[in-house]
């Protein structure tokens, strides 16, 4: 796979967009002293290259009543069932992330809940999925680091 060449202006555009994907191109252009058309062309180039894949919306889950985060490691009866288990996990809206993993667990997922009782109900839903032999849960006390920018800057330095 070919690496796409990004220059400093591309890096600066991405730096602004990673903070706020909704910032208008005209505002980016003013900050970088370039034309809005240049911003548009460069963002389009990065979208076409697959570097930018859509945009995301960051929600304040605490304000929405989903402050409880748990990480659930899932042990499967048979690894051949992984696809079916993932389909069933995807039906549980409180499972926000799921990874097929090596090591201790077959699947590792992130769960958002209202409180411990709600989390227990969600974990029981996961336990009830056909093919799951057992789960192991870790409760998040606090999300201490959630910083995409540091990695982005490291990637830029490596390019």
In words, what does this structure look like?
The protein has 159 residues and is an alpha+beta fold. The chain folds into two domains: 8-55, Arc Repressor Mutant, subunit A, CATH 1.10.10; 68-140, Lrp/AsnC effector binding domain/regulation of amino acid metabolism (RAM) domain (Alpha-Beta Plaits, 2-Layer Sandwich). 41% of the residues lie in helices and 19% in strands. It is built from six helices and four strands; from the N terminus they run H-H-H-E-H-E-E-H-E-H. It has a four-stranded antiparallel β-sheet with strand order 2-3-1-4, covered by helices on one side. Helix 1 packs antiparallel against helix 6 (148-158). The radius of gyration is 20 Å and the shape is elongated. It starts with 7 loop residues before the first helix and ends with a helix. The mean pLDDT is 92.
């Amino acid at each position: 796979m070919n690496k796409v060449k990004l220059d400093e202006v591309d890096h600066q555009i991405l730096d602004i967009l990673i903070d706020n994907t909704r910032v208008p191109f005209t505002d980016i252009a003013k900050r970088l002293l370039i034309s809005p058309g240049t911003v548009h062309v460069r963002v389009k180039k990065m979208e076409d290259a697959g570097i930018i894949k859509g945009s995301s919306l960051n929600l304040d889950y605490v304000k929405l009543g989903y402050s409880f985060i748990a990480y659930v490691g899932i042990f499967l009866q048979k690894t051949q069932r992984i696809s079916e288990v993932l389909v069933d996990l995807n039906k549980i809206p409180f499972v926000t992330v799921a990874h097929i993993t090596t090591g201790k667990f077959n699947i590792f997922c992130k769960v958002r809940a209202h409180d411990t009782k709600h989390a227990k109900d969600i974990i029981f839903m996961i336990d009830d999925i056909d093919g799951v032999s057992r789960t192991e849960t870790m409760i998040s006390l606090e999300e201490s680091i959630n910083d995409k920018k540091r990695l982005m800057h490291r990637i830029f330095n490596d390019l």
